[in-house]
Specification:
The protein is mostly helical. The chain has three helices and two strands, in the order ααββα. Strand 1 and strand 2 form a beta hairpin. Helix 1 packs across helix 2.
Length: 75
């Protein structure tokens, strides 16, 4: 007899995604720095919606958490 799987709730989207300008403002860095992070793949991961670059706030928080962890282990 097969058991029915309980459906998992669909992941919810954040209320809004962040723009490169939002990232620059949050980190208090020039906008060009945000683009350089993306080019070098050293900053928070972004994604394209058409021609527009956006960032998921959850991914940005995970990036900050990784920086904090890395900083603590380097000390």
């Amino acid at each position: 007899m097969a058991t029915a799987k309980t459906p998992q709730p669909a992941p919810t989207l954040p209320d809004s995604f962040l723009t490169p300008e939002d990232i620059a403002a949050k980190f208090r860095v020039p906008l060009e720095t945000v683009y350089q992070w993306r080019k070098k793949r050293t900053g928070p991961p972004g994604f394209r919606v058409g021609k527009h670059l956006r960032y998921d706030p959850i991914d940005v928080q995970a990036y900050v958490d990784r920086l904090k962890t890395t900083d603590l282990t380097a000390a």
